[in-house]
């Protein structure tokens, strides 16, 4: 059994010596390395020799790099398949009906109160975005900055973030930008009160669609959300 410091050394070895970026893969490999290294150390080998032997079993740095690419591809494929199944559920009446009803109410609100109401509705969208994005907040800013400054940027995010995190980041980015695009299309760089006739429709659609997309992400990632886990325990 490795100590916490030895486990940290294995994690650092995988990231710095073997140039791995994907957090989920590193966590799985750390567990594998811990068992294999502990077994070899039980045979009288030093921890360095044991780690290098495990490296060799994966084909060294090139083998681990290939493993990371395959892991990211498989994780993304699985996550997108799961997300497509959620989308299908959210376009059917049981899930879609509340969004349709709320859309009618929002349209009346925006149509009567104009731009002020639309801008006010941004706040719940932003709050929901923060809530849904909780599982993927930056946990180690120092490490991220080190990677940013010292490694090639090409493919950085593609390698580091995969699976549900990759899908969620993409969909959240689309959702949060929809109301902004709706505002910019009809009112670039101005807050004038007189709205075009089409604006209430576009504004309502952007808000409802943004919340709809965020709801699908919340269902995809609720097991990873720390707030949802606390509520479930309570």
Strand content: under 5%
Q: How are helices and strands ordered from N to C? A: HHHHHHHHHHH
- Shape label: elongated
Mean pLDDT: 85
Number of helices: 11
> Termini separation (Å)?
34 Å
Helix % is over 70%
- Please give the radius of gyration in angstroms: 23 Å
In brief:
The chain has 234 residues and is an all-alpha fold. It has helices at residues 4-17, 23-42, 47-57, 60-90, 93-113, 115-132, 141-150, 156-160, 164-186, 199-221, 226-233.
Architecture overview:
The protein is mainly alpha-helical and 234 residues long. Helices cover 79% and strands 0% of the residues. It has helices at 4-17, 23-42, 47-57, 60-90, 93-113, 115-132, 141-150, 156-160, 164-186, 199-221, 226-233. Helix 1 (4-17) crosses helix 2, helix 5 runs antiparallel to helix 10 and helix 6 packs antiparallel against helix 9 (164-186). The longest helix has 31 residues, at 60-90. The relative contact order is 0.11.
Could you list some keywords that capture this structure?
single chain, about 230 residues, mainly alpha
Helices and strands, with pairings:
Layout (H helix, E strand, L loop, with lengths): L3 H14 L5 H20 L4 H11 L2 H31 L2 H21 L1 H18 L8 H10 L5 H5 L3 H23 L12 H23 L4 H8 L1
Helix pairs in contact: 1-2, 2-3, 4-10, 5-10, 6-9, 6-10, 9-10
């Amino acid at each position: 059994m490795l100590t916490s410091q030895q486990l940290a050394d294995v994690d650092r070895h995988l990231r710095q010596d073997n140039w791995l970026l994907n957090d989920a893969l590193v966590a799985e490999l750390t567990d594998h390395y811990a068992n294999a290294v502990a077994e070899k150390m039980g045979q009288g080998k030093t921890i360095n020799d044991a780690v290098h032997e495990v490296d060799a079993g994966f084909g060294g740095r090139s083998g681990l790099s290939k493993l990371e690419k395959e892991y990211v591809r498989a994780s993304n494929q699985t996550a997108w398949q799961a997300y497509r199944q959620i989308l299908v559920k959210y376009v059917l009446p049981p899930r879609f009906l509340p969004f349709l009803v709320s859309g009618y109410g929002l349209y009346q609100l925006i149509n009567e109160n104009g731009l002020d109401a639309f801008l006010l509705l941004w706040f719940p969208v932003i709050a929901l975005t923060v809530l849904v994005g909780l599982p993927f907040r930056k946990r180690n800013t120092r490490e991220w900055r080190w990677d940013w400054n010292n490694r090639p940027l090409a493919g950085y995010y593609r390698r580091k973030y995969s699976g549900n995190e990759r899908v969620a980041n993409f969909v959240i980015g689309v959702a949060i930008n929809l109301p902004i695009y709706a505002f910019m299309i009809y009112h670039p760089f101005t807050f004038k009160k007189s709205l075009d006739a089409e604006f209430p429709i576009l504004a309502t659609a952007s808000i409802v669609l943004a919340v709809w997309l965020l709801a699908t992400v919340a269902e995809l990632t609720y097991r990873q959300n720390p707030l949802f886990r606390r509520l479930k325990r309570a």
